[in-house]
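TL;DR need structure tokens for one chain.
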Amino acid sequence: MNLSPARVRLSGASAELQRVLQTLRDVVDPGVGANVIELGLIESLSLTNDSAELTLVGTNANCPLSDLIADDVFRALQRALPERDLYVRHDPSIEWTPRRMTPAARERLCWVAG
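>> reply
TL;DR here they are.
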């Protein structure tokens, strides 16, 4: 079962990527009540034998919860990949819009794609 929206750039072993993405579904944006996968906050995830690199997209440049979400993502990666070096970063050059959300999340939260 593929757990990631098509727009997420993934690199690494498929089964392991799916396991990590499932773990990331437990990371919820407390301001919205939806997880980071549903909200489209994950831009990319790359796994190697030694490390994991994840790029986050913030809903806006001034989001007060961005650091909290990044910390929660980091802790989720630590649980899923305890023996790896982990890198989590925000990419402020990528604009977030409701189109990044899964259709089910947009419907549930009554957000119109923009």
